Amino acid sequence: MKVNPKNWQTYVWIPARKFMMGCSPGAPQCDDDEKPTREVTIAQGFWIGQTLVTKAAFKRVTGENPMVAAWRQTTRSGISICCLWKARKKAATTSGSNSCPALRSRISHAS
Predict the structure, then answer these.
(1) Count of domains observed in the chain
(2) Which residue among 8, 13, 18, 30 is the one 20 to 30 A from 62 at the CA level?
(3) Average of pLDDT values for 19-25?
């Protein structure tokens, strides 16, 4: 393990090696993409973040709050963070109204 001084995130080394990937034969809760078990080769080792990127690390590297970056990205497509939150909440509770016309139109066109 080592800490990246730029973002203060902890990284772990994944060595080059071969391993078996997928569900164990007979395991009851396997998705189709986990079967059959197969040998996988990592040809070259690499460093990977031990955890998801934190908001603080994102801001240290980009200089921007990740919520602002997400808001900017979603508003480019005509869907605001507020609309996405309302849609998520509505789906979770199956009640309430969807007051986001951009999202409503995308949902109806996808059907």
Answers:
(1) 2
(2) 13
(3) 88
